């Protein structure tokens, strides 16, 4: 009986942990303060890494007044972020970005010194809108 | 010859009676599995699975993230339920298959969550997280596949994590890049320690997986050292504090290994690792004789494997080891008399010597195999 209980716990443990993790991430995305950080390509010659855009915060062009004490909390953020782009769009999006060098920014949900990435903006519009406009 | 004709033949030679023949035939008909039915069942399940996967892959970007997460979680719950009920209904093969699928789906789910929430990757931390989540499950399996995969993921991710910490990175580079044979020996020693520790929990699947990794690693390391050679020449002749430190670590590890092995009685593993330690020390002291030492090291390791196979009546393993031993002797011959192979006479002499080695190895192997069978019968 003791072993059966342990087996049930072993099965439930990953399920419950994953559910808590998803809810925790979703909570941060939904209820954190919204901040926008300017970004550039992590390696400007090779923006795309697999299906992901590799981006790095550009603190010189970021509005630091949106943070506490008007200071950009650089250490709270990672030096490199990856943004998932679908396989079909990725090569042409990279081509547009390399040609036009637009301003890019990432919207984060920021709470308790914990940033969670929400959206990618290109020229202050959601990246899909910018991409569709350029495609036409 | 099919079963019916075989049984008729046995009946003719008075090995079985007519009644026994009929009983065997009846039993075989009863336990015979409908092969065509199972083949078609497998083929149709395979087609359906591939079809579902293709549909998902083709429309992946059109599926909203929330739908992806919900479907994934429902699938996880379903598999979890499958694992539970297959264990309850005592279907071991189904249970093990579902348990492996469940563990792999947990890893895939971590990847999916990372993709949906655009989480920045940090080396193999996701794999370490998976190892943490599935750790309790490895105690509920009877096959070594899942614990084996788990160990691979866990040790690689731990190595990756330590490599990211500057102090540990220095130590790991020192061990695995500058002095690989020391790193290899210490890794094997740690595996022996782990085996000693895990002996208490008496989980045969975990112990088998650990043993399998030990054998794979010792074979890999031995081949690596034999082919690449021990790259220790840089500190040869200079008894620097660094070299004393290396000798000190090796001696300590060796003594502790001896202690562990004495308790554990896993003498084959202990002897195997001891051979690698001895090889490392000798090549460090006499780097010019590296080729000789590496040949002796491989032959000694194969001999240990042969003794293990002989004592445990593992006939097939014994045959494989005999072939490998013969091949290594050929290798030694080629290394020493390689220039002979360029002339006609040399080729004839070499051919005769190769034949003699093959003949003698075969003779010895046959004698040992006969003796092994004799011991088994006794």
Number of strands of chain B: 0
In quaternary terms, these chains amount to heterodimer
- Computed over alpha carbons, the radius of gyration of chain B is 28 Å
Q: Report the span from N to C terminus of chain B.
A: 33 Å
Question: What is the C-alpha radius of gyration of chain A, as a whole number of Å?
Answer: 19 Å
Which H/E pattern describes the elements of chain A?
A: HEEEEHEEEH
SS-based class of chain B: mainly alpha
Strand content of chain B: under 5%
How big a fraction of the residues of chain A is strand? 25-35%
Describe the secondary structure blueprint for this structure.
The complex is a heterodimer of chains A (136) and B (378).
Chain A: H1 2-31, E1 33-41, E2 48-49, E3 52-57, E4 81-84, H2 90-100, E5 104-111, E6 114-122, E7 125-126, H3 127-135
Antiparallel strand pairs in A: 1-3, 1-5, 2-3, 3-4, 5-6, 6-7
Chain B: H1 3-12, H2 18-31, H3 35-58, H4 65-88, H5 92-116, H6 125-134, H7 145-163, H8 166-178, H9 180-198, H10 204-228, H11 241-264, H12 267-285, H13 290-311, H14 315-337, H15 344-377
Keywords:
heterodimer; A: 136 residues; alpha+beta; 2 domains; 7-stranded antiparallel β-sheet; 3 helices; 37% helix; 29% strand; B: 378 residues; mainly alpha
Would you mind describing this structure in some detail?
The complex is a heterodimer of chains A (136) and B (378). Chain A is α+β, with helices and mostly antiparallel strands and 136 residues long. Chain A has two domains: 31 residues; 102 residues, no CATH class. Helix content of chain A is 37%, strand content 29%. Chain A is built from three helices and seven strands; from the N terminus they run αββββαβββα. In chain A, strands 1, 2, 3, 4, 5, 6 and 7 form a seven-stranded antiparallel beta sheet that branches. The longest helix of chain A is centred in the N-terminal third of the chain and has 30 residues. Chain A starts with a helix and ends with a helix. The model of chain A has no long low-confidence stretch (mean pLDDT 84). Chain B has two domains: 251 residues, no CATH class; 65 residues. Chain B is mostly helical. Chain B is globular, with a radius of gyration of 28 Å. The longest helix of chain B has 34 residues. About 2% of the residues of chain B have low confidence. Chains A and B meet through helix 1 and strand 4 of A and helix 4 and helix 5 of B.
């Amino acid at each position: 009986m003791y072993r059966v209980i342990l087996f049930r716990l072993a099965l439930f443990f990953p399920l419950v942990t994953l559910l808590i993790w998803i809810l925790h991430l979703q909570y941060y995305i939904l209820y954190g303060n919204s901040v926008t950080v300017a970004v550039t390509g992590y390696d400007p010659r090779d923006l795309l890494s697999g299906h992901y855009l590799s981006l790095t915060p550009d603190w010189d062009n970021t509005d630091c007044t949106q943070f506490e004490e008007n200071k950009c909390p650089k250490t709270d953020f990672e030096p490199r972020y990856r943004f998932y782009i679908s396989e079909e769009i990725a090569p042409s999006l990279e081509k547009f970005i390399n040609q036009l060098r637009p301003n890019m920014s990432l919207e984060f949900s920021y709470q308790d010194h914990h940033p969670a990435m929400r959206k990618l903006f290109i020229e202050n519009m959601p990246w899909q809108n910018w991409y569709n406009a350029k495609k036409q | 010859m099919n079963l019916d004709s075989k049984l008729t033949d046995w009946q003719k030679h008075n090995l079985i009676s007519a009644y026994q023949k009929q009983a065997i035939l009846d039993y075989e008909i009863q336990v015979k599995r409908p092969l065509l039915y199972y083949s078609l069942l497998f083929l149709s399940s395979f087609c359906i699975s591939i079809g579902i996967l293709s549909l998902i892959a083709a429309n992946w970007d059109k599926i909203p993230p929330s739908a992806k997460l919900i479907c994934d979680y429902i699938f996880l719950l379903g598999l979890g339920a499958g694992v539970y009920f297959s264990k309850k209904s005592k279907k071991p093969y189904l249970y093990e298959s579902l348990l492996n699928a469940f563990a792999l789906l947990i890893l895939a789910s971590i990847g999916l969550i990372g993709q949906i929430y655009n989480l920045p990757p940090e080396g193999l931390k996701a794999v370490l997280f998976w190892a943490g989540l599935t750790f309790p499950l490895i105690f509920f399996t009877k096959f070594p596949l899942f614990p084996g995969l788990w160990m691979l993921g866990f040790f690689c991710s731990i190595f990756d994590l330590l490599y990211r910490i500057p102090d540990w990175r220095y130590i790991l580079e020192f061990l695995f890049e500058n002095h690989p044979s020391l790193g290899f020996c210490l890794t094997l020693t740690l595996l022996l320690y782990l085996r000693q520790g895990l002996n208490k929990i008496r989980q045969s699947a975990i112990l088998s997986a650990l043993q399998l990794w030990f054998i794979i690693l010792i074979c890999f390391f031995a081949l690596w050292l034999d082919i690449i050679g021990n790259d220790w020449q840089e500190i040869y002749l200079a008894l620097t504090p660094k070299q004393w430190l290396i000798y000190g670590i090796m001696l300590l590890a060796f003594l502790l290994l001896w202690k562990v092995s004495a308790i554990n009685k896993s003498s084959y593993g202990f002897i195997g690792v001891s051979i690698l330690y001895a090889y490392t020390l000798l090549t460090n002291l006499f780097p010019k004789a590296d080729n000789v030492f590496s040949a002796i090291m491989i032959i000694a390791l194969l001999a240990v494997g042969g003794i293990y196979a002989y004592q445990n009546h593992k006939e097939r393993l014994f045959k494989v080891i005999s072939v490998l031993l013969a091949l290594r002797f050929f290798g030694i011959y080629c290394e020493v008399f390689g220039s002979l192979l360029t002339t006609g006479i040399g080729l004839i002499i070499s051919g005769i010597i190769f034949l003699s080695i093959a003949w003698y190895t075969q003779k010895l192997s046959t004698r040992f195999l006969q003796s092994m069978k004799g011991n088994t019968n006794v």
